[in-house]
Design brief:
Helices cover about 50% and strands about 15% of the residues. With about 120 residues, it is an alpha/beta fold. The chain has a single domain, classed as Transcription Regulator spoIIAA (2-Layer Sandwich), CATH 3.30.750. The strands form 2 sheets. Strands 1-3-5-6 form a 4-stranded parallel beta sheet. It is globular, with a radius of gyration of 13 Å.
């Protein structure tokens, strides 16, 4: 079992994340790798649709439950962070596990500043 699995989302899917199917395929590839620490690097992703974000969020929760994996999001631009945050806040709150919080990593100060100013 790999200690850390780093996924370059733009290489696995595209710079335009549009469909639920793409999110499911991305997560199935990760699930098959059977890692306990997964980092999704969103460098160079230009757009994420609400449907991709919704399915990605559902699949991420399922992955965390099934594999007890720690999932990180890194190098996401402001639009990606905002859509993921919005989707997470609209999911069924009665079933939400507050033990697992989203983690965002930033590889440079500009991305961090963009995130902080967007909150």
């Amino acid at each position: 079992m790999k200690a850390l699995l780093q996924i370059q989302v733009v290489e696995e899917v595209s710079e335009m994340l549009n469909t639920r199917e793409a999110a499911t395929e991305l997560m199935n590839a990760v699930r098959n790798a059977n890692s306990k620490h997964i980092e999704f690097d969103f460098s160079n992703v230009e757009f994420m649709s609400r449907s991709f974000a919704d399915q990605f969020h559902k699949e991420r929760i399922r992955l965390q439950d099934e594999l007890k994996a720690f999932v990180e999001i890194s190098n996401a631009n402001e639009q990606v962070v905002n859509i993921l945050r919005t989707v997470a806040s609209t999911q069924n709150k009665s079933k939400r596990a507050y033990e697992i919080l989203p983690v965002f990593k930033f590889s440079n100060n500009d991305l961090l500043e963009e995130y902080i100013l967007s909150v």
